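Why should sequence recovery work at all? Because a backbone constrains its sequence more than one might expect. Tight turns favour small or flexible residues, buried strands favour hydrophobic ones, and helices have their own preferences. The token representation captures these environments compactly. In the example below, the structure is given first.
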């Protein structure tokens, strides 16, 4: 347990900043073209503002607010950048410790319903059907818990997850970072077959990407998922570029993997256009 104390300390440093006006009421809050109404600010860190609104709980990056609102909540760009670096380092170390300090099969090697899991088209163990290199399945959404995202021209990363899975909860912060860093190219969609009430109770960490539910688990059944979390990355043309369990040793989903896939897609697209 002592080996993880530095993580707690780091996160406390990153989150200890509080605006004097926390818990204040705002008639509206604008973030990147989205307007939230009936806002109650619950917490402000060096990087984020957390609040409830007419549609539920949410949070946003202070750097995405207008300058007047940034000043109101004492935003400091230098402190925010330092805090984000610290959070990123803590998150990476936390994931490593989950894999090495806690030999939980739901983290390092998920327990599948089948004795011998199928193999992906790229040769790695899978706890789902493989769609790699093929058109991705249709996503069935019963209800969006956030505004429906615009996925036009972007990569889509489906995250099939459950609130009761330690691996799924551990993955949220990393997915938040992916959504923030690749916001111009990527939309992450968290899909659960749990109830709306159950998913909305997740407040730590706060999910910063679109969430949807399908209590009938239609897409999950179509994909044949037997272990969570399960990621599926689909390119702008609808083809699956990555799939599987994101913590599988030797096959982890990472910033580098995502960067390389996007670069490869861009190269292929340029070659096709150049050949015309």
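From this structural description, the recovered sequence reads:
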């Amino acid at each position: 347990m002592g080996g993880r104390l530095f993580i707690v300390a780091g996160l406390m440093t990153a989150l200890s900043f509080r605006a004097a006006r926390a818990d204040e009421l705002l008639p509206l809050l604008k973030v990147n073209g989205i307007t939230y109404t009936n806002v109650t600010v619950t917490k402000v860190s060096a990087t984020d503002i957390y609040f409830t609104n007419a549609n539920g709980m949410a949070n946003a990056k202070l750097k995405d607010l207008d300058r007047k609102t940034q000043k109101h909540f004492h935003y400091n760009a230098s402190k925010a950048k330092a805090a984000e670096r610290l959070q990123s380092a803590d998150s990476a170390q936390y994931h490593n410790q989950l894999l090495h300090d806690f030999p939980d099969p739901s983290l390092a090697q998920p327990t599948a319903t089948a004795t011998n899991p199928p193999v992906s088209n790229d040769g790695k163990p899978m706890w789902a059907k493989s769609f790699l290199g093929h058109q991705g399945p249709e996503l069935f959404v019963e209800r969006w818990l956030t505004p429906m995202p615009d996925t036009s021209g972007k990569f889509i990363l489906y995250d099939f997850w459950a609130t009761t899975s330690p691996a799924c909860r551990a993955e949220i912060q990393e997915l938040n970072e992916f959504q923030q860093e690749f916001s111009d190219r990527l939309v992450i969609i968290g899909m659960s077959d749990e109830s709306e009430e159950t998913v909305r109770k997740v407040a730590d960490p706060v999910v910063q990407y679109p969430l949807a539910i399908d209590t009938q688990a239609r897409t999950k059944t179509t994909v044949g998922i037997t272990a969570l979390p399960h990621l599926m990355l689909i390119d702008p043309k609808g083809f699956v570029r990555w799939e599987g369990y994101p913590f599988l040793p030797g096959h982890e989903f990472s910033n580098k993997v995502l960067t390389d896939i996007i670069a490869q897609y861009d190269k292929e697209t340029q070659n096709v256009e150049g050949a015309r």
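A few observations help interpret the result. The first strand starts at residue 25 and ends at 31.
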